[in-house]
Amino acid sequence: MKAYNVDNFAVLIGMDWADKKHDICEHPTGTNKYHYTVIKHTPEALHEWAMDIKQRYPEQKIAIVCELKKGPLIYALAKYDHLTLFSVNPCAVAKYRQAFTPSGAKDDPSDAFLQVEILTLHMDKLSVIEPESVAMRTLSQLVEYRRSLVQDSVDLSNKITATLKNYYPQALEWFKEKDTYIFCDFIQKWPSLTAVKKARKQTLLDFFESHNSHYSTVNNARLDSIKNSMPLTLDEGVIVPNQMLVEVLITQFKVLLKGIEKLDKAIKSAYKAQQDKKIFDSLPGAGPQLAPRLLVAFGSNRARYNDAAELQKYAGIAPVIERSGQKMWTHWRYSCPTFLRQTFVEWAGFSIRYSFWAKAYYEQQKAKGKPHNSIIRSLAFKWIRIVFRCWKTNTPYDESTYLAALKRRGSPLLKFAVNS
After folding, report:
1. Residues 162-185 as b or e (16 or more Cβ within 10 Å = b)
2. Residues 119, 339: Cα–Cα separation, whole Å
3. Cα–Cα distance, 85 to 78 (Å, whole number)
4. Is the separation of the CB atoms in 332 and 374 below 8 Å?
């Protein structure tokens, strides 16, 4: 990644963003001058300001630092070639302010000034926002939005389950999987035990068949249960409001399921067009959901990371080591891109089922008394190093090749796998 210093820029700008307006501090390099302005958060105002800066500093680079890595402001500024965007952690600005303002006073213009000061003194430690290709950024947004919708569907499913338990718990036994259209359509058609008991046997069988539920044993068990079920309560004061709530929640749930399906198709199409697809398709347990997320995690810019350790730290997988006097301890890395870390941890968990050495490593660490979550994180740490090499050399992962490498090094992992 290209290294920058203050001399590369004609002016350093701190931007304290807000929903309605942005406070700006401009500091021409080599001077003691600071100029403060406020601009509205509108596309027109941002464009006018960006063009004004370009006219005042023609043919020169301009550095902007902000407490953001993405969002409307970054999307608006990223399109201007004369602007180089730096990102600073909001916690860093808050700690910096606290160090020099013991009173705890906070002011937007002064925060913009603090950002300029941090940029001036520590530019080499700040990350530069370098957008990936349009295709990669599209895929990145899609996989993140999908994961968010999946979490929403889980939350909604839990609400539906809790509500049904209040008056209609039998429906939860008839359908083990709740994130399905057959479950949603059944509840919409028969939102109470009283309603489904009035349905004819053939009507129910036709419903199951139309939803591709063809196992006669399962369907007959449902029919018997419907016939023999007793209502949990006959109190209309319980049934009516809970039934109304379930009908509302089920409608929302179906919209979410359709939205996730739509995103799945878009992700599949965007992922298929990526040249590195063959690398991430080869990873054990990645599958159609995690393979695109892993591709996005690495990106297409091979110069972005110098080694695997940079990615391990950035993703929050590498632990933090602290020392004080003669004491030393490690802890979870607190500040990192949550979705990125989540991607690696989730995949490491899946890989145990599909990778011989990953399963052996898990069992080895488990035998040492390590907790499950710690093992998965340390496994993710190892996987990043392996996949980083595949990514750098543009080589798909091959389990037999890695096992042969472990054998050449006399890894105790293989001995553990054989003995177990």
Report:
1. ebbebbbebbeebbeebeeebbbe
2. 27
3. 7
4. no
Distance between CA atoms of 263 and 268, rounded to whole angstroms?
8
Distance between CA atoms of residues 312 and 330, nearest Å: 15
Backbone angles phi, psi at 218, to 5 degrees: -65, -45
Residue 318 has a pLDDT of 81
Query: Coil, helix or strand for 109?
Result: helix
Average pLDDT for the chain: 90
How far is CA 88 from each of CA 91, 100, 307, rounded to the nearest angstrom?
A: 8, 18, 22
Residue with tokens 């931007």: 15
Instruction: Give me the mean pLDDT over the 315-336 stretch.
Output: 66
Residue found by looking up tokens 């201007």 in the block: 80
Q: What is the pLDDT of residue 154?
A: 96
Three-state SS letters, 346-412: HHHHHHHHHCHHHHHHHHHHHHCCCCHHHHHHHHHHHHHHHHHHHHHHCCCCCHHHHHHHHHHCCCH
Q: Look at residue 354 and tell me whether its pLDDT is greater than 90.
A: yes
